[in-house]
Amino acid sequence: MTKTALISVHCQDRVGLVAAITGRLFDLGGNLSDTTFAVLGGGADFTSICELPDGVDLAETEADLRALPELDGADVAVRPFGMASIHGPSGRVTHRITVSGGDRPGLITRLCEVFVEFKANIVRLYAEKTPAGGGDSYAITAEVWIPEGRAPSCLATVDNTAGELGLACRWEKVA
Q1: Residue 120 contacts by C-beta under 8 Å, 6 or more apart in sequence?
Q2: Same structural domain for residues 40 and 76?
Q3: Residue-level pLDDT at 6
Q4: Residue 136 pLDDT
Q5: Who contacts 69 (Cβ-Cβ below 8 Å, separation ≥6)?
Q6: Residue 119 belongs to what domain range?
Q7: How many domains does the structure of the chain reveal?
Q8: Which residues in the chain come in under a pLDDT of 50?
Q9: Looking at the whole model, is its pTM more than 0.85?
Q10: Torsion angle (degrees, nearest 10) of CA 157, 162, 166, 167
Q11: Which of 71, 94, 93 is nearest to 7 (CA)?
Q12: Pair 116, 48 in one domain
């Protein structure tokens, strides 16, 4: 019998973080399900749903991760995950949409409101602000599930919203 854990690590970004974390979980007999890693400014976030075998204690798993040299000073949490470890149909990405250009306050909110209007589910969202010659550049990539039949209208509305803000929009259908 296995137990499902949600593992979260927030720490300073450094080389080898993912290898150290996933290596230790593998050594404990863990099997990773949905997992994300991102550099956020000078920090990094790792989050994973992990199936752990019987006999592997969550508190001991957390202590083992904290003991890794790569995680010195990290905020580590290992706790029970009481939801399904496999996502349903609305967790499958149907479209990848990128909106980019100058930084606009409220941009993420405006885009997310469009997705709500079309009953689309955001599966993943990435946003990155980078310095550019005439000010900051901003890019948002949303990986979304759009219900069948709603994609053309949803994508047109996202494109119009980006255009109103003077931003570029591109999208691709994901198989």
Answers
A1: 114, 144, 145, 146, 147, 150, 154
A2: yes
A3: 97
A4: 77
A5: 20
A6: 89-173
A7: 2
A8: none
A9: no
A10: -140
A11: 71
A12: no
